[in-house]
């Protein structure tokens, strides 16, 4: 049998159900590998001891009807987990232990999965390289000193490095798809309202969505099926009929019309990315689907719009971290002094930058010019997609304008860092589902991803397209275990 | 419209000033749970025992609108004759304070749930209409307690997230008396609707008062000052009085009034500057992305409309028409829903041959006096409406006199006794047998022959003497009307 940690989620589930493996075998294997992988710094908090206990308990009384029977899983540290420290990658929540569970993780445990630990991420999910985490940089399993992407950097690193069979991340502007692309794995950002936001530390409420990250499309579909649910505790959760995404998965996409938006051919985009895209178009055709050139005219406004809307919401969402109720508190002379010291010491530079941007764009006198304008442009961007979807079933684009970069390479250039999200951000602004699948390597051997954008609630369709393309692409991630001594 | 002689004006040398007042009333919605969480809202609970993770703004917690509070707001809007907005939006009002866990208050800014409306005030000189600008729903903050510890401030979050209705009036009020009538009218309407208990001591009803002054006859508004968070009508009136005079003095001295927020110091009876316009918070309002716009259907509103009870204005009209009450009497009875309920129950229990005027006089006279002296609400009346009705009927059918009735009423207070029983047990029944009374009067005339002659010679004052003697002889039980008749005949 293949190394346990090299198996896909689907294989592991089958092997546990067929009693070829026990939950304890599987859990132990991932714990062992995680313990050997400290250099990746994927984890902020591990829960290995109790994970093993839970695995043993599962094996004593197994329930094979569950979708994730005894499967160990680490999750992004943005999901509140009962009695397990939840930091959002920030000093300000360094000591925060929730008494409650997020709906998405609750759904996962209810299907039999077991928490391995909490994965590193950019502070409050603000970043594209995992370099803003209070808990240090995360190494990419692809190469030493390479960023895994962000903000779900720890999650991407853990899946690509086989420290967890699958995981969940959150995606506000590309935080699942971009790190998935950088590390050669699959990442799905679902339709806004598909997965509950209850119990997820908020970054930008109108954009945040949880989603699965996996080694292949089928695993991704299975995990999405588990986490997507209507939740009355989240007023923006949508009560629509959800598919059995993994069961209904098919690689028959004959006759599907796939749009190729010309505006995604941005200035300065490396030829490698263009070539990859062209290869993708060919794969689509090879699958019997048709590609159609389309226009999303407002694409160039998406990034500036995002960097108004997201910080605006964040500046308000993060106001609760004030040292009064929980989390880090600095001593102060008086209330205001305590606030200032707590928030200056508790938040990192990128978070502070975004709070300031957000505060600025909402302040009176600037609100109309920035926030209100951005909301109008957001509407236009959504209209672009609505218009396009009259002609096509899905849209194919590159996931990122470049492959992964070195740690420290863009730290001092926030704008160049923000440009990483140029292809992913419009999808969040429009509330649509998008999936990144690994599609090739650049000249340095680093993975490159393609993004398939779907209509709202049409996750099944983009999963099918991804599934069909995956078979044609036949991508092999080059993991050398460089970090294991 | 108020007449000239009742105008509230501030006089200085040659100048007269009119006072312009607008109120922002914060009324706590009567509901079991909070606006966006399921925590209880009971007053006076141990600190921090009615706090959910949502109220304390824990990471990842999300607000979910309480439909009941929405219904309460719409009902109140209907009671204020106001436009109900089918689409309204919750916004975040951002500011930092220790008792504001989220760092923002969820409120409604641009699109409130209720739009323009009006209420009618009954002033001594006639009716006055006051415009309502809007009503919106918002969360209350927690409570900071500064005096329990020399170093620390304690925070009680029981109130955090409780639903408030902010009712904003147009600047239509012109005197402390009108403010008094306005608050009482709002409270009355909301108590009829069951949407706010109106309890000012418990903070269920409080107001920010906007005051400006202008020369009498001027059409333009002066610069206004906002006096924050006053929780008694008396203090509102005192604050307005002080503030209006302060502003007039400034104008008289040739100075300008700064637009600012002020606080009323109840001990010193003065308003003090809290913050100027320049220091005003920038609340950075924006639509709360955790909540979708609130949309209600025509059907939803219609069902609530059908559920609205008879409100004070309609009840007053009906009392005047149906029971032939004066507007004054009707006002007294309808202003408080419990008084109206008591009165209507008395009317119902009195049966066919009823004397409504008599009942009204007794409620507003004897009953109110007893309630006042005992410090009770009418809902806690020691005399039930049923026994009260029996008492009125006993007077009406001549079983007891009004005077005896007062004695009976005294005895009823203790344990809500049946007046019929009291009358029988104490032998207080009125003597209405003409033969017995004639005999009694014959004896009195006989015993006082000289006075009888004087009366016949024209000393009419003496009639009262004979009535008194007869009542005395009967132990107060004689039917005074019959005594009168017989005496007139015999003398």
What would a concise description of this structure say?
The complex is a heterodimer of chains A (about 475) and B (about 500). Chain A is α/β, with parallel strands linked by helices and about 475 residues long.
Fold and architecture overview:
- The complex is a heterodimer of chains A (485) and B (491).
- Chain A has 485 residues and is an alpha/beta fold.
- Chain A has a domain at 123-140 and 165-485: Amidase signature (AS) enzymes (Alpha-Beta Complex), CATH 3.90.1300.
- Chain A has 15 helices and 11 strands.
- Chain A has helices spanning 9-17, 23-36, 48-60, 103-110, 153-160, 177-183, 217-227, 271-286, 302-317, 335-346, 349-362, 368-388, 414-418, 425-430, 459-473, and strands spanning 43-46, 72-76, 114-119, 167-171, 186-189, 209-214, 257-261, 290-294, 394-398, 434-441, 447-454.
- In chain A, strands 4-6-5-10-11-9-7-8 form an 8-stranded mixed beta sheet, sandwiched between helices.
- In chain A, a hairpin with a 5-residue loop joins strand 10 (434-441) and strand 11.
- The radius of gyration of chain A is 21 Å and the shape is globular.
- In chain A, 60% of the residues are buried.
- Chain B folds into 3 domains: 4-305, no CATH class; 310-426, no CATH class; 434-490, Arc Repressor Mutant, subunit A, CATH 1.10.10.410.
- Chain B is built from 15 helices and 16 strands.
- Chain B starts with 8 loop residues before the first strand and ends with a helix.
- The mean pLDDT of chain B is 93.
- The chains are: A alpha/beta (485), B alpha+beta (491).
- The interface between A and B is large, with 44 and 31 residues.
